[in-house]
Design brief:
Largest sheet: 8 strands, mixed
Order of helices and strands: EEEHEEEEEEEE
Radius of gyration: 14 Å
CATH class: Mainly Beta
């Protein structure tokens, strides 16, 4: 995903603007997750995520509220408006996932795959142009 447009930093934040963040460089990955945990944490049929190196994420303002959604997984959100913002897994300590829709320009890094399709709600369509993975990142 290394393109000239992805070399600079991008900013994002929550709905109420209490939290602002910046990520630098190109994302490691861009995907749509259909897993049960993401659906429940986001109160949505799926959640789009961008993965960055943790060192490339900077909180500019506000305070991220954290919770452990499953063993080894920490998610953050805005305690004022409830916007889900990040995901960190102990299995990938050098990365942070940022909700794509929380970027100021969420169209900048379109997804390349859909994961956890075995959990997908029957009424949500998949994008035929994307790589499809029954579970995590392995293609099915």
């Amino acid at each position: 995903m290394d393109t000239p447009a992805s070399k600079s930093s991008v900013e994002g934040g929550c709905l109420c603007k209490a939290i602002r963040y910046r990520v630098a460089g190109a994302p490691i990955s861009s995907l749509i997750c259909h897993c049960n945990t993401c659906r429940r944490a986001g109160s949505a049929p799926s959640v789009a995520w961008l993965t960055f190196a943790s060192a490339n994420f900077a909180l500019l303002s506000g305070h991220l509220q954290t919770f452990q959604s499953s063993p080894g997984v920490t998610r953050t959100f805005c305690s004022s408006c409830g916007s889900p913002l990040t995901y960190k897994s102990d299995r990938e300590p050098g990365t942070i996932d940022v909700t794509t829709a929380s970027l100021d320009d969420p169209g900048r890094f379109p997804p390349t795959r859909e994961v956890w399709l075995e959990h997908k709600l029957g009424w949500e369509e998949t994008n035929a142009c994307l790589l499809h993975c029954a579970q995590g990142s392995s293609a099915s």
